[in-house]
């Protein structure tokens, strides 16, 4: 889990760095392969803009992209759920192999456990790797293609920052909710996980605050979709309720076993 958190942070930082690499304008005359890919995104957004409204195009395009990535996200959530359920066994292994001298053996035992239970750690990271070039292309489309940098949407001038800070705040709130929901059902919570939740929230707020409203709109819609997706397919409250029901069922089973054993002794 710590490895996943660190990798997520690295991808987020990498995204911010890479999105700043391309600054020149992109037009239909562009010949570079990557820039053509970015321009395709821009054209798709313009096509989806009902009545020429780029803001609506950004929202619809974001929803379409996130929906297309949903199968990968479901694989990620299923893998994460399995890893969560295995945390008690992982904890037992850590207690069995304490100290730095046993780290190699501990790692081997954890890997063996995951293999026996059919858990693929990379499956939980695959969507992050797939989404990264898409996020970069979308960001550059909004910041480097001229026809996406103009227009109004609600109170927003899409080429400028949000004057009322509403989108940066919403983007940060949805980022926090998404991270909080994903960690809610964790059997073991660490200070690092809590710190990462707040750090990611602060990073998204800062990023949305300094970006054009078009980019901030994307972050807001994308993170809101993530919250909805988590509640629908990996609801932590449902997971907690299922675990509690299993715990009570096991407790009742043990009570019945003890009663049966007492009756058996009396008959003797």
Automatic annotation (TrEMBL):
Recorded topology in the membrane: Multi-pass membrane protein
Listed GO CC annotations: plasma membrane
Signal peptide: 1-22
Limits of the Membrane insertase YidC/Oxa/ALB C-terminal domain: 55-234
Biological process, per Gene Ontology: protein insertion into membrane; protein transport
The protein, known as: Membrane protein insertase YidC
Subcellular compartments: Cell membrane
Sample GO molecular function, one term: membrane insertase activity
Sorted UniProt keywords: Cell membrane, Chaperone, Lipoprotein, Membrane, Palmitate, Protein transport, Signal, Transmembrane, Transmembrane helix, Transport
Organism domain of life: Bacteria
Pfam families referenced in this protein's UniProt entry, alphabetically: 60KD_IMP
Name of encoding gene: yidC
Chief localization: membrane
Keyword Lipoprotein recorded: yes
Keyword hit for Disulfide bond: no
Segments crossing the lipid bilayer: 47-72, 122-143, 163-183, 195-219
Protein family according to the UniProt entry: Belongs to the OXA1/ALB3/YidC family. Type 2 subfamily.
Known function: Required for the insertion and/or proper folding and/or complex formation of integral membrane proteins into the membrane. Involved in integration of membrane proteins that insert both dependently and independently of the Sec translocase complex, as well as at least some lipoproteins.
């Amino acid at each position: 889990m710590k490895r996943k958190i660190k990798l997520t942070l690295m991808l987020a930082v990498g995204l911010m760095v890479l999105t700043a690499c391309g600054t020149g304008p992109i037009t239909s005359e562009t010949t570079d392969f990557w820039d053509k890919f970015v321009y395709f995104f821009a054209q798709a957004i313009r096509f989806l803009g009902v009545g020429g409204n780029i803001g609506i195009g950004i929202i619809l395009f974001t929803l379409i992209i996130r929906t297309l990535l949903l199968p990968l996200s479901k694989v990620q959530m299923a893998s994460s759920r399995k890893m969560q359920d295995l945390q008690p066994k992982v904890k037992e292994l850590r207690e069995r192999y304490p100290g730095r001298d046993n780290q190699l053996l501990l790692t081997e035992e954890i890997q063996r456990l995951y293999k026996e239970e059919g858990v693929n750690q990379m499956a939980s990271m695959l969507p992050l790797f797939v989404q990264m070039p898409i996020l970069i292309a979308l960001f550059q489309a909004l910041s480097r293609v001229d026809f996406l940098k103009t227009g109004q949407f609600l109170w927003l001038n899409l080429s400028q920052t949000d004057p009322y800070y509403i989108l940066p705040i919403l983007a940060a709130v949805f980022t926090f909710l998404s991270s909080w929901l994903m960690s809610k059902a964790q059997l073991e919570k660490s200070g690092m996980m809590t710190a990462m939740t707040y750090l990611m929230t602060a990073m998204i707020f800062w990023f949305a605050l300094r970006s054009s409203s078009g980019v901030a709109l994307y972050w807001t819609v994308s993170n809101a979709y993530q919250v909805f997706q988590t509640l629908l397919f990996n609801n932590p409250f449902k997971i907690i309720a299922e675990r509690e029901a299993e715990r009570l069922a096991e407790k009742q089973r043990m009570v019945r076993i003890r009663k049966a054993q007492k009756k058996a002794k009396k008959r003797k």
